[in-house]
Design goal:
heterodimer; A: about 250 residues; alpha/beta; four-stranded antiparallel beta sheet; 10 strands; globular; B: two-stranded antiparallel sheet; 4 strands; transmembrane (chain B); ABC_transp_permease (chain B); membrane (chain B)
């Protein structure tokens, strides 16, 4: 028991036996998987495999019917709400880029910076020196430093995706959940995004959901294949693409 | 230094607005008291009262713009907060009548004597004291908004559903206040006020005083709203308006922010109502009518949602148009109001103020070189 507990606390994310059903449809069915600190993991799977529902469970948007979800081995994610979980250090990027369109790029980052989040803290908040440094570092990382003063609404689709990733970085989470970061991107942007994510994965744990196989190949990380709400296969991309069952349900012959 | 900071607080259009308010504060009393009544520059006392009323409407519009324009909460029940503030003021004015009522009862207002009530209901206690009534003016609307908002925002009621329940709230209050047993004068409401703090409400000087007070209150509210929307909290509000779930997932407890701004806004509406009642001399349940709240939202839409200055322009402008039309072409007014809303929604999504900044952008820039590299027009509009 003790050793199991030690095992647990060393994980960043620990999902065990999670099931979620909507009106009889089993979106997640006894899903279990583990993310280690500093690990980057790609999740693939056909539509309806439960990828987004899994993210909803981890971020507190959806409560599982059964199963446990632990963050850093000690926080029970099934009992917390979105704001709590975000403050614990889990950042989430949506499938469709969601940024604050009527704020400047810089203000988008300012709002995301880790810090106090209560009404009265923000009412009397003043811009601080060390904040400016962190904002600049994030803007450099996401390659939007020269567009800091632009309205987020005026960014291209790809730039909005990066800005959203930058907002996650500013939150300084220990785990980033990234849902289809390259959907709708040009090839050049896709390659840049892969580089960006690899850079981020150096000091964060990252879970990426993606359909784009060449992008997953670029990332070169461990892959988990979801099917009908549970894990079908796990391993390197070459390993899972050789798996008969994966070929049957997902990759096609 | 100070002036620079002040300009940042007001914004250019806000500074113009404050200058106009100051001019109106000086001109109207002078024109009323010292310019010969035969002169076209004279302002008669009835007009002073009408202007005072419009200033109260502008405050109501401002409070709606704060929640709707900046946080995306379309409240169709703000008229109720306005009316509650008005009732709190009205209750004080009723108590101040004292033994001068028709029935001469030193404690009970006339309508209670008429209903054969023996004693003052408990919730009328304390309203004989001016300070107590003033506390209630902000506390009652604020508390209602807090409880209502707590339940609605915690359950994540948003969009059109929230609008509908705010409307239902106003309607329910209207029905309740129509009942004689409620103890607020029923159908007739509260009226026949004599004076406030000893000043005769019919006197020119009192009316001018209330008018000036309304201008001051509007200016202060405008500055409070600006301070809120310019703070980091204001940025969070806009974030909630634009992408609520994103705001939640970066760790803000969205319902707290909504609750804060909704409550502040309701308190502002209450103050507007409290200044309105002594000027018009009556408050009755008709003020809770859902149509009133909707009309106030139209003022904001016409003036320019999310601009604050636009809300004030809309609140005053639409009502000026209303008094002109209801006088000149009474049958047309409702069609004109409806038409106005359709035109604004279709052709001026950002209202009068949005249109002005759009025109200003379309004029050729003085130095074309300075414009290169500027983002598309929407960005500049947002900033304006």
């Amino acid at each position: 028991m003790n050793t199991l507990h030690k095992e647990l606390t060393r994980t960043v994310l620990y999902l065990d036996g999670i099931s979620v059903s909507f009106d009889g449809f089993k979106a997640l069915n006894d899903l279990s998987f583990v993310v280690e600190p500093g690990e980057m993991r790609a999740i693939i799977g056909p539509n309806g495999a439960g990828k987004t529902t899994m993210m909803d469970v981890i971020t507190g948007k959806t409560r599982p019917d059964v199963g446990s979800a632990l963050f850093a081995g000690q926080h029970d994610l099934t009992k917390l709400d979105e704001a709590d979980i975000a403050q614990l250090g889990i950042g989430r990027k949506f499938q469709r880029p969601t940024v604050f369109e009527s704020h400047t790029v810089r203000d988008n980052i300012v709002l995301s910076l880790a810090g106090k989040r209560s009404v009265f803290d923000t009412l009397f908040a003043r811009a601080r020196e060390e904040e400016a440094d962190r904002i600049d570092r994030v803007l450099d990382t996401i390659r939007l430093a020269d567009r800091a003063g632009m309205m987020a609404a005026d960014l291209s689709h790809g730039q909005k995706q990066w800005l959203e990733i930058g907002m996650l970085l500013a939150q300084d989470p220990s785990l980033l959940l990234v849902d289809e970061p390259v959907a709708g991107m040009t090839d050049a942007e896709t390659v840049q995004t892969a580089t960006l994510l690899k850079e981020i994965a150096r000091d964060h744990s990252v879970v990426v959901v993606e359909h784009d196989m060449s992008f997953v190949q670029d990332l070169g990380v461990m892959v988990t294949v979801l099917h009908e709400g549970s894990v079908l296969a796990e391993g390197s991309l070459d390993h899972v693409s050789a798996d008969e069952r994966v070929i049957d349900v997902y990759l096609g012959r | 230094m100070i002036s620079g900071r002040f300009l940042r607080l007001t914004g250019t259009s806000g500074l113009i607005l404050l200058a106009c308010l100051l001019a109106a504060a000086i001109y109207v009393p002078v024109a009323n008291q010292f310019i010969d009544p035969g002169s076209p520059f004279h302002v008669n006392t009835a007009s002073v009262v009408v202007f005072g009323k419009y200033l109260c409407f502008a405050m109501l519009a401002l409070s709606i713009d704060l929640v709707w324009g900046y946080c995306g909460i379309l409240s169709l029940g703000h008229g109720a907060f306005f009316a509650l503030g008005g009732y709190a003021m009205g209750m004080h004015l009723m108590r101040e009548i004292g033994p001068r009522g028709v029935y001469g009862n030193p404690i009970l207002p006339d309508f209670m004597v008429f209903l054969n009530w023996e004693s003052l209901p408990w919730f009328w206690y304390g309203f004989d004291m001016f300070w107590f009534a003033m506390v209630m003016v902000v506390l009652v609307p604020g508390l209602l908004a807090f409880v209502f908002g707590f339940l609605a925002f915690r359950s994540r009621v948003t969009g059109v559903y929230l609008s509908i329940i705010t409307q239902a709230m106003a309607f329910a209050l209207m029905l309740a206040f129509f009942r004689n047993e409620m103890g607020f004068g029923g159908n007739n409401g509260l009226t026949d006020f004599k004076d406030v703090l000893g000043f005769d409400l019919q006197a020119d000087s009192t009316r001018i005083g209330l008018y000036l007070l309304s201008i001051a209150a509007l200016a202060v509210m405008f500055l409070i709203c600006r301070a809120i929307v310019l703070s980091r909290l204001g940025k969070v509000l806009i974030a909630v308006r634009d992408a609520e779930s994103r705001t939640r997932f970066i760790g803000y407890r969205v319902e707290h922010y909504k609750l804060f701004v909704f409550t502040v806004s309701a308190m502002m509406a209450g103050v507007a109502g409290a200044l309105y009642v002594p000027q018009v001399g009556i408050i009755n349940p008709g003020e809770f009518a859902p149509a009133n709240s909707i009309e106030a939202v139209i003022w904001v839409a016409v003036g320019g949602r999310g601009t604050l200055v636009g809300a004030v322009i809309g609140g005053i402008g639409v009502n000026l148009a209303k008094s002109y039309f209801t006088g000149a072409l009474p049958e047309i007014w409702l069609f004109a109001l409806g038409g106005l809303f359709v035109v604004v929604t279709l052709f001026m999504p950002k209202g009068i103020l949005g249109l002005i900044s759009h025109w200003r952008r379309r004029q050729p820039p003085p130095e074309p070189a300075a414009e290169t590299g500027a983002p598309s027009s929407t960005a500049a509009e947002e900033r304006a």
